[in-house]
Design a protein that fits this description.
The structure is a single chain. By secondary structure, the chain is an alpha/beta fold. It is built from six helices and seven strands; from the N terminus they run βαβαβαβαβαβαβ. Helices cover 42% and strands 16% of the residues. Strands 3-2-1-4-5-6-7 form a seven-stranded parallel β-sheet, sandwiched between helices.
């Protein structure tokens, strides 16, 4: 008699709403237990309740990605509770679209970099050893087309995503030998609360479920290959 396959464990940051919540719902449909992270306990619980109501398994975990202590505590909790990690989705992000860079407050620069780039470093640093001991897995970093193209009046956001892309490509080479695939997903404008979309038609914009579909594809692809980068655009210009 074959022994049952171990339950796959996933961690998704920024999962209280928007893209993160959509990703958590999507991969829970494939039988993974998803630990959803964020700062808003009530919103996280709502995401967890939606997943449970649909027959999935989910655990909410309050965690500020900019605080190394929070991330380390979460990593210890996941290892102690489940003993493994198969999927890490670094989705938490903030935007800043308040004018040209030379007028940007230094505190605003730090807020963007600490969330969009430093937080990803904290999670990779804190969870990779557990993923290696689990036999490999997927790290998926949610970037942006702003990490591939100029973004006037959003230079700090663009810089954080260009940096995230460089980090991801490099870590992918470091971890390939451990059977860990590192991928980035670069969506265009998504209909969420992250940034203003003045003059754009929400009906033509990407939706959170579009990004979730791509993540679900990545984590279910055959083990002998991986999509290192996916650029996601709306079918029609909004």
């Amino acid at each position: 008699m074959m022994s049952p396959r171990p339950l796959k464990i996933a961690v998704v940051t920024g999962a209280s709403r928007g893209i993160g919540a959509a990703i958590a719902r999507a991969i829970a449909q494939d039988g993974m237990l998803v630990v959803v992270c964020g700062r808003d306990r009530q919103a996280l619980q709502q995401t967890a309740d939606e997943i449970s109501a649909a027959g999935g398994q989910c655990e909410p975990a309050v965690c500020d990605v900019t605080r190394l202590e929070d991330v380390q505590l979460l990593a210890s909790r996941v290892e102690r509770t489940y003993g493994r990690l198969d999927v890490l989705v670094n989705n938490a992000g903030v935007g800043s679209f308040r004018g040209p860079l030379h007028q940007l407050a230094p505190e605003e620069w730090e807020r963007v970099m600490n969330t969009n780039l430093r937080g990803v470093f904290y999670f990779i640093r804190s969870f990779t050893d557990l993923m290696i001991r689990s036999g490999g897995g997927d790290i998926i970093n949610i970037s942006s087309l702003a990490g591939k193209n100029p973004l006037p009046n959003g230079a700090s956001y663009a810089a954080s995503k260009w940096g995230l892309n460089g980090l991801s490509y490099s870590v992918a080479e470091e971890l390939r030998g451990h059977k860990i695939r590192v991928s980035i997903v670069c969506p265009g404008s998504v209909d969420t609360e992250l940034s203003p979309h003045t003059g754009k038609d929400p009906g033509k914009m990407l939706q959170p479920d579009d990004v979730a579909h791509v993540v679900r594809m990545i984590v279910t692809q055959a083990s002998q290959s991986f999509a290192s980068e996916i650029l996601l655009r709306p079918a029609q210009k909004p």
